[in-house]
Amino acid sequence: MELVSILLMLLVLFTLARIGNRVFEHFGIPGLIGEIIVGIIIANLTLTGDGSTLLDLLGVQLPGPGEDSTSTNYSILYAAAELGVIFLLFSVGLETRVSELLSVGKSALLVAVLGVILPFVCGWAYIELTQSNFHHAMFLAAAMVATSVGITARVIKDMHLMETHEAKIIIGAAVIDDVLGMVVLAIVKGTAGSASVTIGSIVEVIVMAVAFVLAMIAAAMWLVPRIYTKWEAHEKKVEAKTGKPTQGFNILVVALVACLFFAWLAETIGLAAIIGAFLAGMLFADHAWETKLNEKVETLTTAFISFFFLNVGMQVDVALISSWNVIIMAVIVIIIAVITKFVGCGLGAWLADRKIPKDSIKIIGVGMIPRGEVGIIVASIGLNLIVDGSSALSSELYAVIVLMAVATTIIAPPLLARAFRKKYPEQFTITAQDKI
């Protein structure tokens, strides 16, 4: 009976997500916004007299802030959502050659660093000036730091513009941004009184993060090419002896093993799983086109990514907006979050290359705006962390951060699509044949 319930849930949610996706694409708006809005609706719209939502009827019980869900259906939905964003970043890695990423290394680094510093300082200053609460200020600042690369990556992929200079800078900066975000979160938890986080552990996170990224880049540049060369030589010898073509190995199986392994490894050492998945994709980037690996992985991404965007929308509880004070604070925080990322990342791009066109600066600035699930995760940690007998983050500020995360996620895609269309010819935009 439980399997029947799970299958029905997946069927209904996937169908509704795809309908929302196509409706929004019909009006020229990125379909992922439709999927997020569908998630908001099904989690908040009551369908029965007892206040049950569609999720309740499907047996999906959302966990409270900082809690683990006891609902089997939600656990499966969450796993599908996480697989979706992992496969998405893996496919982005397949289109990102190491040589091309290193060519924008300076720009990506400056974009990421300034895109972290400016939002953190401004977010911290706003709460300190209005509430004089150090812990609240630190958690809001941390929630405003990390970019949700999954949102931006989906827009760029749908428009077939992954090969552009701006896209490479955004993706490279997002990887560095996520690493910095993990370090910032470790520092914030440490200042909130967590005994398990020390200066030594923070240094350990930094060292492991840098070592992991550099090791993957080195493997993609020197180890993988040698493996391919030796394997091709082996196949030629076998063909010469037998006179028959070799079947070779299933590249999709090997790629998925690498994707899941490095996603697990990244999560294990304290980084985000999506960083490991992205770097794993880069290992196969030089040969992805000739083996048609991109197309094979895209099929998996399409099957799972809708659950990720649904889950982002489902985290929004409209009942949290209980007063004008919360609404006003949310509007101010959203404005700060948008402006600081846009200005900080745009300034980083300009400092790295003083000759970069203004429209490219705009694309990079807008592409780094979405906070998505990253901000919500930080908020949940703050709400669940007890400091001096109370939560390190108030329920009102938690609601503000959730609204900020979702708003920046919804705001960025149409602005990014519009900025790309202005710079690049119309033939590069998504067509009816390209829609998935």
The pLDDT mean sits at 82
The helix/strand series, from N terminus to C terminus, equals HHHHHHHHHHHHHHHHEEH
Compute the number of structural domains: 1
What is the helix content?
Answer: over 70%
Task: Report the principal-axis shape.
Answer: globular
Strand order of the largest sheet: 1-2
Radius of gyration: 22 Å
Strand segment count: 2
* CATH topology annotation: Na+/H+ antiporter like fold
Strand content: under 5%
- The CATH class: Mainly Alpha
Q: Count of DSSP helices?
A: 17
CATH 2nd-level architecture? Up-down Bundle
Q: Summarize the biggest pleated sheet.
A: 2 strands, antiparallel
Class by SSE composition: mainly alpha
The end-to-end distance, rounded to whole angstroms, is 32 Å
Low-confidence stretches: 432-436
Describe it.
The two termini are 32 Å apart. A two-stranded antiparallel ribbon has the order 1-2. Residues 432-436 have low confidence and may be disordered. With 436 residues, the chain is mainly α. The radius of gyration is 22 Å and the shape is globular. It has a single domain, classed as Na+/H+ antiporter like fold, CATH 1.20.1530.20. It has helices at 2-26, 31-44, 54-57, 72-94, 98-103, 105-131, 134-143, 149-158, 165-191, 199-242, 251-268, 273-283, 293-314, 324-352, 358-367, 372-384, 395-423; strands spanning 386-387, 390-391. The protein contains 17 helices and two strands. Helix 14 (324-352) crosses helix 15 (358-367).
